[in-house]
Amino acid sequence: MSGTSPNVPDLVGEALATLRDVEGVRGSFLASTEGKILARDLPSVVDARSLADAGVRVARLYETLATEGDAPEAILLRFSDHKLHVRIVPTGLLVVLSEVRLNLPSLKMAATLVARRIDALDRLPLPASDTSPPSFGRAATMTPIPPTLASPRSGGDAEPSSKRHVTYRGRRIG
User: Fold this and answer.
1) 119 inside domain
2) Structural domain span for residue 16
3) 53-73 pLDDT, tens digit each
4) pTM higher than 0.70, yes or no?
């Protein structure tokens, strides 16, 4: 093993790879709130251009939903043969591609752990010898997510009773 330490994007990629331990997860990626791809763990059939387009579209979807009032903490897009799970994390948008049949509580737990791991990596100081600009979501290169989204809700915070929820086909989705 060499004496060099892995860089932050590689460690984020390793964190994303752990999501595949959940049965039904096909891959994932991390995008900034502007749609820039920060890290990926997807099958090779997903080329960089398609992924870049998807990142921008997911970011646009999040931005659109956030303008309606309360910003969503998560978004689920269902397609005929797969689902796209979007979770808001302090670093940006964590997007998971899965099969239709998936144990959602397992994915939520795994995504929470991965989000914490990515957040901890993002807080690592840059090595003194690194004079290049950061290649990962450092505060200088990221649009900050509002503090209400970046910090987990504590048990003592009561949500306002007037909080508006989005419904689809009679079911609450936001």
Assistant:
1) yes
2) 8-152+164-172
3) 999 999 999 888 888 677 788
4) no
